[in-house]
Amino acid sequence: MPDWWRKLRAAAAFLTRFPVGGAGVEEKDLAGGLAFFPAVGLCLGALAAGCLIVAEHLFAPPLAALLVVAFLALATGGFHLDGLADTADGLGSSRSRQQMLAIMRDSHIGVMGVLAIVVVLAVKVTALAAAPPDRRLAAVLLMPTVGRTAILLMMRLLPYARKEGRAAVFYQRPPSTALAAALLGLAVLGPGVGGMAGGVVVVAGMLFVAGFAAYCRRMLGGATGDTLGAACEMTEALVALVMAARI
Predict the structure, then answer these.
(1) How far lies 241's CA from each of 26, 105, 235, in Å?
(2) How far apart, in whole angstroms, are the C-alpha atoms of residue 63 and residue 51?
(3) Residue among 170, 166, 143 nearest 36 (CA)
(4) Which range is least confidently modeled, 19-23, 30-34, 135-139?
């Protein structure tokens, strides 16, 4: 099996719930799979776009948007939504840095976590439903792609805030080259499928991640697996919002 294929499979096994043979993934492949996160996002976007095309032939835009957002959540097993909830609980607790990190590791979900999930999912659904028909498909394609690129940018900007954790394996290899390739790809893909709005999406998404990274550095001293997932989910919501904007 080619080295690149093992790494791509490792990334897909980590980020999705598709049966891609995740049981046989080695740690070195998982670490190397970081470079393929945007590619996995693009594949998710393509599948979601297909889902949207079918749904829009059967239902009104609001229900079609809901089905697409549900598909993305189910395809990832709510993985990043869980990180979003834990991040909201921790950062919203107004505790010390160590207490925030402890709260984020707790498997129980609090009010802030529930609120964060509800708001992000509501923004995605309503923004997709409100987007012009010619932008809706582009939005669905870009959301997972920009979201997974956001993870690479967060990792490039921030050190790991814990001594150990699920995301620690990805910090074995700096994502600089992978990030540069992903940003170059987005610079072409964004305007290519979404016109001016698609270009704005790429810039706005990366600026948002940079701001969120600065906030996480101040509050937590770095990134965790939860904040990486939160960055992905919030960036996806931002993509949908920008594509629905009157620009």
Answers:
(1) 38, 30, 10
(2) 12
(3) 170
(4) 19-23
Q: Which residue type, as a one-letter code, is found at position 140?
A: V
User: What's the CA angle centered on 149, arms 35 and 127, to 5 degrees?
Assistant: 150
Find tokens 């594509």 and name the residue: 243
Expressed in percent and rounded to 5, the helix, strand and coil fractions of the chain are 80, 0, 15
Identify the pLDDT of residue 23: 54
Contacts 24+ apart (CB under 8 A), 173-179: 173/31, 173/32, 173/34, 175/34, 175/35, 177/35, 178/34, 178/35, 178/37, 178/38, 178/152, 179/149, 179/152, 179/153
Domain boundaries, the chain: 3-244
User: Distance (Å, rounded) from C-alpha 55 to C-alpha 8?
Assistant: 29
Q: What one-character-per-residue DSSP string does 51-73 give?
A: HHHHHHHHS-HHHHHHHHHHHHH
CA distance 189 to 111: 37
User: How far is 28 from 9, CA to CA, in rounded Å?
Assistant: 12
Percentage above 90 pLDDT, the chain: 78
**CA 185, CA 209: separation in Å to the nearest integer?**
17
Tokens representing 138 are: 């582009």
